[in-house]
Structures are given as structure tokens and as C-alpha cells.
Amino acid sequence: MLIINIKDNESIDRALKRYKKKFERTGTMRQLRARTAFEKPSVRRRFEVLRAVYKEKTYGHLED
User: Fold this and answer.
1) What is the dihedral of CA 55, 57, 58, 63, to 10 degrees?
2) Average pLDDT for residues 34-58, to the nearest whole number?
3) DSSP string covering 1-64, please?
4) Contact yes or no for 26/2 (Cβ under 8 A)
């Protein structure tokens, strides 16, 4: 559970913005989406390798 302490004279908008930022940093939504369906470790590894190959292709020329 995320707890946001509202400071003196702080607007609700500012507190909500801090809450959203903290929520995003914890990665709760990513974790929930990952848990919706089981993904085999071999499939996860395959996607990681494909992502690495793509990154190497697109950003590999920048390391000269």
C-alpha cells in the first residue's frame, strides 16, 4: 500500500501528482499485467533475446 503524507499548505493536485509518480516507480501495474497470464521461462527468454538483438541493430552503430 502506498502512503502519501500531505504536507502543510500542499494542494491536492500536488499530492496526487506525487502519488502517481510513486505508483509508477513501484511498478505495480507492470506486475499486475505480467501476472494476468502465465508466461513460460523459455518464451520470456526468447523475447529478451529478440529485444537485445533489436537494440543492438538499432543502437549498435552509436558505439563507434
Assistant:
1) 90
2) 94
3) ----PPPTT--HHHHHHHHHHHHHHHTHHHHHHHHSS---HHHHHHHHHHHHHHHHHHHGGGG-
4) yes
Closest CA to 21 of 1, 34, 4, 7: 4
pLDDT surpassing 80 at residue 61: no
User: pTM for this one?
Assistant: 0.54
- For residue 1, give every residue at least 6 positions away whose Cβ sits within 8 Å of its Cβ, in sequence order, or none: none
Give the length of the chain. 64
**Sole residue written with cell 537494440:** 55
What distances in angstroms separate CA 44 from CA 26, 31, 35, 49, 55, one per listed residue?
21, 14, 13, 9, 17
